[in-house]
TrEMBL record:
Protein's organism: Novosphingobium soli
Membrane-spanning intervals of the chain: none
Upper lineage: Bacteria, Pseudomonadati, Pseudomonadota, Alphaproteobacteria, Sphingomonadales
Keyword Zinc-finger: no
CDD domains membership: NPD_like
Name under which the protein is recorded: NAD(P)H-dependent flavin oxidoreductase
Residues forming coiled coils: none
Enzyme Commission code: 1.13.12.-
Flavoprotein as UniProt keyword: yes
C-alpha cells in the first residue's frame, strides 16, 4: 500500500484496531453480508462484517465457520441488540473467537458489552449523538460508528456531515470513530480521515459487488437508480410509529403509505385497537429485504440502498472497489498537500 501512503497513514489507527490492511469496513447488510461477500472484503484488505439479523444461534454458528473457511483474515459479526437470543449469539461469537462484534439497532442491553469483552473480542457500537457516544465509550465500547441518514437501511434523523462535525472534534483524537453513510468515493473518505476519523464504513457501494450473492434483479435496480430514488420511509400518522428505512422507491414503498392511511382509518372507525394497528404497520415489511435480495422481487420487496447508490453503476469485484476508493482518497490528499506547499 506504498502507493496510498497518505491514506494508509491516516487509517493506521483504524487498520491496527481492525487487523486489516485498510480501515474500510463493509457494514453488515442483512441477507447480503454473508460468507461470500464478507470473506471477499476481508481478503481484499477491507474488513467484512457478517450480518446476523434474525439468524438463530445455530445459523450464525454455521455462517461464521463457513466464512472462516474462506478467509484467514479478521472479520466481524453484527448483532442486533433487540434479538431475543442476543446472549446466545454472543456466546457463539465467543466459541469461534470472533475478534470484533458490532452491536446495532439501539443501546446495548445491560451486560452485553461486558459479555463480548469477556470473550476477548472488541466491541463496536453505533453512536447516534455525542452524549450517547461518550456514554457508550464509558460503558466499554472499544470503537464507535457514526452513521448519517444518507445510509441505506435503518437510519437516524441526522446527516453524516453534521454528525461528523459534532462528534469527531470531541472524540476522534482519543477514541476510534468510523464514519458511515453516503460515502461512495475516496474523496469523501479523505475528508473524514482528515477530520480525525479512524476509518470509514460503506454498505451501498459494496452491496452489488461481483462477490455479492444479491439477486441480479436487485443489482440491476441499484445500477439504474440515482440518489433521489433512495428515499426514507415516511410516517403518515403520529399514532403509528415507523422506524425510517432508506430504500429504493418501488411499488412496495407506495403501498406502505397507502397501508398506513388505511390502518389509520380503521383505527378511527374503531375496527382495530391501537396494538393491532401498530402491529399491522410493523409487519408490513416482514421478510421484504429477503424477498428483494434473495428472490429478486424488486416490485414489492425492500431494496434497501443509501443515497450513494447513484455512484454504483456496474458489478465490480470487491478488490477493484477498494483499490478505487484508496486511489481516489490518495489523489485527494495529494492534491491538498500540493495546494498547501504552493501556499507555503
Ligand atoms: C441492503 C442493506 C442492508 C443493511 N442491513 C443492515 C443490518 O442488518 N444491520 C446494520 O447494522 N446495518 C445494516 N445496513 C447499514 C450498513 O451496514 C451500512 O452502515 C450502511 O449501508 C452505510 O451507509 P451507505 O449505505 O451510505 O454506504 C444495511 C444497509 C443496506 C444497504
Amino acid at each position: 500500500m506504498i502507493a496510498h501512503s497518505k491514506t494508509s497513514a491516516l487509517m493506521a489507527r483504524g487498520s491496527e484496531f481492525l487487523g486489516s490492511e485498510t480501515a474500510i469496513l463493509c457494514g453488515a447488510m442483512s441477507w447480503v453480508s454473508e460468507r461470500n461477500l464478507v470473506s471477499a472484503i476481508s481478503n481484499a484488505g477491507g474488513f467484512g462484517v457478517i450480518a446476523c439479523g434474525a439468524m438463530t444461534p445455530a445459523l450464525l454458528d454455521a455462517e461464521i465457520a463457513a466464512t472462516r473457511a474462506l478467509t484467514d483474515k479478521p472479520f466481524g459479526v453484527n448483532l442486533i441488540t433487540m434479538h431475543p437470543q442476543l446472549f446466545e449469539l454472543i456466546a457463539v461469537c465467543g466459541r469461534h473467537a470472533v475478534s470484533h462484534v458490532v452491536l446495532a439497532g439501539g443501546i446495548p442491553p445491560k451486560g452485553s458489552v461486558e459479555a463480548i469483552r469477556e470473550h476477548g473480542a472488541k466491541v463496536i457500537c453505533f453512536a447516534p449523538t455525542l452524549a450517547l457516544g461518550k456514554k457508550l465509550l464509558r460503558s466499554g465500547a472499544d470503537a464507535l460508528v457514526i452513521e448519517g441518514m444518507e445510509a441505506g437501511g435503518h437510519i437516524g434523523p441526522v446527516s453524516t456531515s453534521v454528525l461528523a462535525q459534532e462528534i469527531l472534534p470531541s472524540l476522534a483524537a482519543e477514541h476510534l470513530v468510523f464514519v458511515a453513510g453516503g460515502i461512495g468515493r475516496g474523496e469523501a473518505i479523505a475528508g473524514y480521515l482528515e477530520m480525525g476519523a479512524a476509518g470509514v464504513q460503506l454498505g451501498t457501494r459494496f452491496a452489488c459487488a461481483s462477490e455479492s450473492i444479491a439477486h441480479p434483479a436487485f443489482k440491476k435496480a441499484f445500477f439504474r437508480a440515482s440518489a433521489r430514488d433512495a428515499i426514507a420511509s415516511v410516517q403518515v400518522d403520529p399514532r403509528l410509529p415507523v422506524i425510517p428505512v432508506r430504500a429504493l422507491r418501488n411499488k412496495g414503498t407506495e403501498e406502505f403509505t397507502a397501508k398506513q392511511i388505511e390502518v389509520a382509518r380503521r383505527l378511527d372507525a374503531g375496527e382495530v385497537d391501537m396494538g393491532e394497528a401498530q402491529l399491522a404497520i410493523e409487519h408490513f415489511w416482514a421478510g421484504a429485504l429477503r424477498r428483494a435480495v434473495i428472490d429478486g422481487d424488486v416490485e414489492s420487496g425492500s431494496i434497501m440502498a443509501g443515497q450513494s447508490v447513484g455512484m454504483v453503476t456496474s458489478e465490480e469485484p470487491v478488490a477493484q472497489i477498494i483499490a478505487a476508493l484508496m486511489a481516489e482518497s490518495e489523489a485527494a490528499l495529494d492534491h491538498r498537500a500540493g495546494a498547501r506547499s504552493i501556499a507555503a
